[in-house]
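By way of example, we now present a protein record of this kind:
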Amino acid sequence: MPITFAEPVNNSIKSLVDICYAHLQVSPKGTLISKPVNEIYQAQYEFDNDQNEYPEDEGDVSSVSEPIQAYPFTPSNRIINNFIIAVDSGVVPLGQIIGGGVAFAIRGAAICYANENLLVLTYNSGPLLITPQNKPFVFRYIGQRLGEPSLYIDLKDGKLIPQPSAVDTPNQIEDRCRSFIERIIQEEAIAVLKANGGGILLLDGALTHGFDTPKTYLKTMLKTAETNKIDVCAISKKSRIMIGGISIDSLFDQHPYFVGFAPLMKTINKEREAYIKLKIRSAKDITAGTEVFAARFGFGPPGLTFRVDVYNTFGSTNEDVINDIYSKCRITGGYPKPLIDAHHYSTFLGGDILSLQADLVARTGLKIKEEPSLGILFQPFGAFGK
């Protein structure tokens, strides 16, 4: 299979970086406290997302209103454009500035499968440094670009005021920026699919609006996909949604050799209507998709069951879309290979981290100081949490 790599210049990502540095105020004598490279390398996996999932209190919901009907995968029997694009992104923390500020970098990938051809589109932010001085400008731009200017930063009496608990912590700052860049890559993937007659957009996560994705933006994105013959499928590695007191990833535990899917929207709605007093979200609030499935793409190990959100286009059913994912994607370890590839190409290696830190030093004049470790004081028991 021939593989082609490209790194297009995306104007929205470029604008984010430009705004970051245009409003950056940092002392050239400042110090960036950084963890050892091996710890930074591991830390990036803490951001492995299903970022759109909400925690929710399920109360005492303990019975399913009706049996869940599951179906084995069947070969795709419809004629569609064999063009699939899988999108993922990653973020790596580079350190924190003494006195306030967080440094990180974001990388994303769009893996384009067209029959026997593979095109890898890669996107890189380079090192980003968010401080109290440039944070309002960066996140005001993100809100404007997503169609909701006050998403993170409100404008009152000519002053930019952060929304409460929106971009306070380093984790929030890093993941909000990562989510924004991933949405921008998804937009570009839709444009590529549109230019080639449609296909399937495969995403990591859920089709849910939330802290980092306005409801109107998500609906507009899905409607654009629908009108251009693009089916959207989002696969969540984790889900907090419960059905009859059982999590989605445990629904097929009693059937270890089953490979297939079960539609859940009707069951979720009927069950939750019986517990309306608990104010549990309806299925329509759980997803912007047209169906939520529990799906197992292969039997163990690992034989995992995933939440799969689908938004089907004209001329296709929800079942067509999930069957196409199984039929047209190579399945590796019970998971679609395009998403595995997208994850690989959006991951940072140790050498990348050192290069990004060097780039940041060259841009800002900051000095890097490795965070001291007290591990040696607590041997042989380690120093976890010290």
Notes: Residues 153 and 162 are 4 Å apart (CA to CA).
